Amino acid sequence: METAILKSPFKSEEYFVNMGPQHPATHGVLRLLLTIDGEVIKKVEPDLGYIHRSIEKMCERDSYQQIIHLTDRLDYLSAHINNEAVCLAVENALELEVPERVKVIRTILDELTRIASHCLWWGVMGMDVGALTTYFYGFRDRELINDIFEETCGARLTMNYNVPGGLRHDIHPNFVKRVKDFVAHFKTKLPEYDRLLTGNIIFQKRTKGVGVLSKEDAIAYGASGPVGRGSGYSCDVRIHHPYSALHKVNFNEALQTAGDAFARYQVRIQEMWESLSIIEQLIDDIPEGAIQVATDAVIKLPKGEFYQKVETARGELGVFIISTGTKNPYRLKLRSPGLSNLSLLNHITVGSKIGDLVAAMATLDLVIPDIDR
Amino acid sequence: MNIPLNISGPLHNWLFAILPPAAAGIFEMVIMALVYLAIFAVAGLFLVLLERKVAAWFQLRLGPNRVGYFGLMQTMADALKLVSKELTGTEKADKFLYNLAPYFVIITALMALAVIPFSSGFQAFDINIGVFFIIALSSIGVIGILLAGWSSNNKFAMIGAMRSGVQTISYELSVGLSLLTMILLTGTPQLSGIVEVQKNGWLIVQGHIPALIAFMIYMIAGTAETNRAPFDLVEAESELGAGFHTEYSGMKFAYFFLAEFINMFIIAAVAVTVFFGAWLSPFGITESIPWLGVFWFLAKTLAIVFLMMWFRWTFPRLRVDQLLKLEWKYLLPLNLMNIVLMALIVWLNLTIQF
Q: Which of A19, A127, A202 is the best residue to mutate to test the B interface, defined by the most B CB atoms within 10 Å of its own CB?
């Protein structure tokens, strides 16, 4: 290296930086191998495996009730939605019809989970582009949702509230009132988010035209969730394959066509509004009825292959179960949204600056345990 | 050397009465140095606490409130912790430069304090090129940051240091030119002279439109000079970890940390001196009580410091190319036009005088 410098003193040289596994912008133990020329990124290579727990393999060992507990630990910000994916898959396989009450409560909790996840994302998004205050604003509102979860489910993060056939137990008597209070509260706080960050000229300059992803590439890379919808790819599972109580509600799919970081940002802000609207449509008339249908103590799925997809806060989560008719799945494959979205990173950041990489990565909203299962 | 310090008048007389002049001079200088070190330490610790309280206020938190009443001793405790910590470093660092770098930063910050006119006569070193002295010192401070990043043999620190170099070279122009605009109005770069001129009205009023533009440019460039958000690319924590001081620990880290706050204080103090009448009270309401000058000076400085903290806890960070674009495409041409405008206003005698 020294001789190279001596030969041509003004030659610029590419160099190599390890971003992670401990780095503030990777939000977990993701390691990025960056090849940089000055400030310009030449190549981004994600290196996975730092938090691999072989969840898919463990699923083959466990019964279907036990699998629910493992799915909490995938994308821990959408724990409830992950649980629901497995439960729906099992219920479809058993051809169980769960009561309406269960469906409505599941959907309300799904949307609360989505808002909580987007609140956290909004906080760290601001932090990644340098506005530290957003973090606390996002967490302030997320805490209220976590309190609702805690009261009803007993846990704040890993909820385990769904079981195959229904819910673990009934909602807390305060649930409806607290959710209504939260919706009213959050409607006054969401405009605050816009005032603090969205309208800021520096923020717009930092995100507009950064990490541009075309619709074709979004489809080719298998992008889903807000990342796909930011590029104009209509991929909301809730619209195209409604599950639980989603057929009962009217809501718009948040779509933007620009495909840059700011478009993905706007999609998530818009999604929070849509989630509020879904909750408002359902919360007033939660049907009375049972919270479970009885299942066998040991659930045995019929022989065959079963697939269920749901829309988590990050995109499309697919659960593919191959059953041989025993109490354990022969194989359980999870299609996680984070992995597909991460695969875009090199494509959308090559040629941009280090700061752009961080901003673009923030709008992919990566949760590393979801990528490394 | 002339040390025109009113508050040390009795001390000065007493020392010169009991000691030979040479010894008395040396003693007096040592005592003044200690006084300024104390100011430095207290100001640094207080500003760190203030920043944490202001940040907490912006962020729906309480801030430090456990150590001492209202958390007042928190930064003291932090400083004690940092003093007692082990000084670690990278094995392949350039040891000499690595150890030298923090002193560059801290000494220049301390030297710049000497020319700040805290009150009538409360100024250690009333040099006749005061404004230029401060600009020169801030340039030397950057060498410390560059050395720190380069010598610690860490790529993130290196990127931070390079950014710092680029940023400071650019924004020094704006700081210098905006202060130059005001020197057109005062006719002297000596800080006490600048205060003297403002007895007919603060310069931001005297110079009205161009002074206001100069003040805004100065605040933007000054924030960039101190490497604070939205210009904190040097230590952009979501991009570079801790930037240039990644490899520093204990007291060496504390030097960088303190210097940042003292530099912020100096930028604010210069803004107050050049634009807001330094220790002069508004409309001369307390002119008969000269010792209130310190109060007015500190009050105005803290107001500007608060403004800079407000920036920091509200704005996102610029990207490095946007930072340069802002300076070279917008601030610099505006600044040059502003100088012409100010020259015209001074020439045509359009200033507002009371």
A: A202
pLDDT in tens, B108-145: 888 888 888 887 777 777 788 888 888 888 888 888 88
Nearest to A17 among B59, B155, B319 (CB): B155
* CATH class of residue range A51-371: mainly alpha
Amino acid occupying residue B316: P
Last residue of a domain, one of B56, B84, B112: B84
Measured on CA atoms in the order B78, B84, B90, B94, is the torsion positive or negative? positive
What is the identity of the amino acid at A16? F
Q: Is A311 helix (H, G, I), strand (E, B) or coil?
A: strand
Mapped onto helix, strand or coil, the DSSP state of residue B127 is: coil
Whether B316 sits inside 8 A of A130 (CB atoms) is yes
> Looking at residue A117, what is its pLDDT?
92
Q: Which residues in chain A are closer than 8 Å to B236, comparing Cβ atoms?
A: 130, 355
Closest CA to A261 of A125, A367, A371: A125
Cβ within 8 Å, pair B314-A133: yes
DSSP calls for B38-59: HHHHHHHHHHHHHHHHHHHHHT
Question: Among all chains, which residue has been given the structure tokens 């649930």?
Answer: A175
Exposed / middle / buried, residue A12 (Cβ in 10 Å: 0-12, 13-18, 19+): exposed
Pick from A24, A140, A200: CB nearest B316:
A200
- Please determine, for residue B2, whether its predicted confidence score (pLDDT) is greater than 50: no
Q: Where are the domains of chain A?
A: 51-371
**Locus of tokens 């989560």:** A317
Contact A137, A192 (CB under 8 A): yes
Same domain, B111 and B170: yes
State which residues form the domain around B71: 1-84
Question: Taking CB atoms and an 8 Å cutoff, what residues of chain B touch A138?
Answer: none
In this predicted model, what pLDDT tens digit does every residue of B188-218 receive, in sequence order? 888 888 888 888 778 888 878 888 899 999 9
User: B43, B67, B84 — which closes off a domain?
Assistant: B84
Whole-model pTM: value is: 0.86
Query: What integer is the mean pLDDT of B230-256?
Result: 80
Read off the DSSP letter of residue B7.
G
Q: Is the ipTM of this complex over 0.95?
A: no
Tell me: do B248 and B125 sit in the same domain.
yes
Residue A115's pLDDT band (cuts 50, 70, 90): very high
For strand A166-167 and strand A40-47, is the pairing parallel, antiparallel, or unpaired? unpaired
Q: Read off the pLDDT of residues A327-368 as tens digits, 9 standing for 90 and up.
A: 888 988 988 888 888 888 888 888 888 888 888 888 888 888
